[in-house]
Amino acid sequence: MRSNSKKVQWQQVSTGFLSSLMAIIAGLVFGLIILVIVNPNQAIPGFLRILTGGFGNSWQGFGKVINYAVPIIMTGLSVGFAFRTGLFNIGASGQFMVGAYTAIYIGYSVKGLPAPWHWLLAFICASLAGAIWGAVPGLLKAYRNVNEVISSIMMNYIGLYLVNFLIPMTVYDKIKNQTKSVLKTARTPTLGLNKLLPKSNLDIAIFVVLLAVIVLYIITKKTTFGFELRACGLNREAARYAGINEKKSITYSMLIAGIFSGMGGALLYLSHTGTYMQVKDELLMQGFNGIPVALLGLSHPIGIFFSGLFISHITIGGNYMQAYDFPVEIIDMIIAAIIYFGAFALLFRQFFTRRLTRRASLALADEPSPATQGGGVDESKTVHVDKEDHV
Questions:
Q1: CB–CB of 264/243 below 8 Å?
Q2: In the 8-state DSSP scheme, what is residue 180?
Q3: Is the C-alpha dihedral spanning 111, 114, 115, 116 positive or negative?
Q4: 179 phi and psi, to 5 degrees?
Q5: Is this structure's pTM higher than 0.90?
Q6: Structure-model confidence comparison of residues 7 and 105, the more confident one
């Protein structure tokens, strides 16, 4: 039975990967058709440049891919974790902004701390700020049954205007209309990566992301706490009947989701890429980009990691489309098409899962049981055992 369960799990992983791959191929084909319609002469070279992505400029392009992927992977983990527990975290952008501002404020205002501890303090405080911003919709959902989609969207705009109100009062550069630069002690440690890979601007953020992926996978797959969260997401009534604290699970789910978004904001604005927050009436797109990353990765931590790298890869390639007489916005159309076809990935997954399940059922039906091989068992008992294995 254990071998059968492992086989089923492997089949689910393979079908999920295959469905996402088909969505990506369909989206790229759609993008190629758009390129041919807009400019037939440059369609193939432009399409190849998109596929080349950041690898066209040596380590600098590689660094751009990683640095762009870090925040959207973190917000993707935030959205995917909440979705795994049956909740829709549309508030990743607000959690991201609040965490980013907190990191910048600590990184600029707190002085006298040595390099590693200053960055760690800013990083932890940003995570806590994201957790608070995520916990509010969770508490409203748990204790007042307020739809988390509506409350998290409203928290996005509360976070936006709160940050726009606080920046001019605390860390504002009037000349550049942006936040002031954080202290060097608050910058993300590089561990020599910037020297090993020149012009890449890489730091330990990618390792923090990998650690977050591993931790999230362990929580959701290997712990009782994660099982309770997933059970509550699959069937809240059954989870309550089994003795799981439904309100506690909902609150913790949104709180943890907020932590990942806040961490993403800290990793972006404490990095060495020269990114600053500006006072604009616009939500940061890193939070919203985490939604398609989570959908394309089927809300699995490992899938989210690779889907974030892929979206970042083709986005960097799309930034060079003007050299082929295409507007840079065309890459947004291609990514939107991939995400649109990603919705059909669920249909692809269901189709392949049904076929594989049917094959597994037939294999179990044809496989003789140990009792049958030994003889002396009537046929009715053998059929009964096969039915149990099938279920």
A1: no
A2: P
A3: negative
A4: -70, 155
A5: no
A6: 105
